[in-house]
Amino acid sequence: MRNFYSQWLVLLILLGALVSGNEVVAQQTVDFYDTDRIAELRLTIKDQNWTDELDSLRLYGNDLMLAQAKVDGKDYKNVGVRYRGRKSFTTGGKRNALTVKLNFIDRSQNHQGYKIIKLSNALRDPSMVREVLGFEVARKYMPAPKANYVKVYINNQYYGLFVNVESVSDQFLDKNFGSSDNTFVEVNPDHTKEDGNGCKKDIFGNLEYEEDLECYFSHYELKSDYGWDDLQKLTKTLNSSPDKIESVLHVDQALWMLAFNNVLVNLSSYTGDHSENYYLYKDENGLFNPIIWDLNLAFGSYKNTGKGSDLNLAGLQTLDPLLHENNSSKPLISKLLSSEKNKMIYLSHVRTILNENFRKGEYLERAKELQRLINVPLYDDKNRFYKGSDYEKSLTSTVGQKSRIPGIEELMEKRASFLKKHPSLAILPVKISEVTVDGRKKAGKSMSDFAISARVGKFAKNVKLMYRYDGAGKFKSAQMKDDGSSNDGKAKDNVYGVRVKPTNGEKNIEYYIVAENKGAVAFSPSNYIVKMHTASLNDLNH
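Predicted structure:
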C-alpha cells in the first residue's frame, strides 16, 4: 500500500511539474506585442538627474544612457535609453517618448528576438487608440509594425501608459522580407534644415529626383551601410520613366500604403504636406517596399495635405480619394495613378479597406475594446496629456480648442458614407468566389500540376492567376478562361480555370486571382499581400 501511495505521489509531482512547466512555456510564448494584453517595462537608472541627462542626450547627440531593464518580468542588464520623437519631445517633459535598446552593450541581447523597444507617448491622441487600431488595420493588407500598450516604471515610479510600437529593424525586415542586409531608408525629413545650394526647395520626402546625392541627406536617413545610389535610381525612374517603375518599386504595396493613408486620413505621411513617416526597404527581388510608420496622428489628428491651410472637420471627412492625382510634387501618387491599371488597383484597395473596416462599425467596436483594456492604467497615469473627460469623449467628439482633434467615430462615419458615394468608387468590381484546386481523381495517378478554378461574377473581361512556387521569387501571370477546356467546367458558366505546371520539381504554390470588369478590379483573397491562397501537391495527392 505504501508503494501504491508513493507511486501516486510521484505521479502527482510529475503532473504538477508538467502543468507548471506548461504555464512557464505559455508565458514565454506570449508575444510582447500582443494587442490584447498590457506589457510591463521597468527601468532602473542610477543617475539621480536622469531626466536632465536624457534631455541633454536628446538635444545634443545620439548617445544613450545606461540602465537596467525588466521586460514582462525578465531582467536585462546594460540597456541603452534615450528620449525619442521630434514633435512630441519637450525639455523637462514628464511623459517623453522613449527608445530602449536592449542590445546596447551586448549585441546578442534581445527579448523574444526584439532588440529595440520604441514607446510612443500618444501626443495629440486623446483616445490612445490611433496607433494600435491603425496598425491593426494596416497589417491586414501590407507588412506593418505590431503595436500594443505597455506600463512603464522608472526607478519603481509609474512613468505612464505608453503605446508600444514594433521597431522597423532587422527582425521586422527578416520576418517580412527574408533579409535585412539590403538598402534600407527611413523617410523622416528634418524640417529645420535648409536645403543645400542647387537642391529643390521644400520637397521633403516626396521622392523627387535630385542630381546631387547630397540633396537627399536632409530628407532621408540611410539605415544600411550603402544605398544612396539605389534611392536616387528609384526617384529618377519614378519621375522620368514611370512606365518602368515596376523594375525598382513594389508598386502594389505602395498603392496599399497610399490607399490606407487616404481612407484613414493619415496626413502625417507621404500623403500630407511633408511626405514623411515611412521606410523604404529593397528586397531580394531588387524592389523597394514602402513600410508605413508613426500613426499617432492618423484619423485626422494632423490636417495639412500640403495644399492650402489645415482642413476643418468637414474637409477631413470629405478628403478626395484621388487627392494629389495631378500634383507633380507628389510623384508617388501622381506618377503611379497616371496608369489606368494602377488607378483601378488603388481604388480597389480604398474600397477594400473601407468595406472591411469602416462600413459596419467594426473599427468602433475595436476602439472601444482597446479603451476598456487600458482604462485602469490610463487613469493611474498622473502624467497623461489629457483629462479623463477628454479621453471619454475622444471617440465621438472633437477634443481641444486649438488642435481640434476629431473624434474617431465623428470622422469616420461621415467619411465612410462620403467614400461609398464617391463617383470614382461608383463602379463595383465583380465578385470572386468558390476558389478551388483539383485533387487526385484516379487511384495510382498522381497530380503533377495545379488545376485552379474560381467563380467570377458577370461581365468580367479579364481574369488572371498570379502565382509563385515555394514562396520565392516574383509572381508570374497566367490567363484564366471560361471556355470549357481550361479546367473550368462548362463554357460561359462564369467559372474560370487554368492549369499551371511546376518545371523544377516545386511542390507548393502561393497564388491570388485578379478579375477586371470595365471600370474596377477585384482580388481574391482581398488581403493577398499578407495572406494568399496556397496549395501543396503532397496534400492534393492524398
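Summary: DSSP finds 13 helices and 19 strands in the chain.
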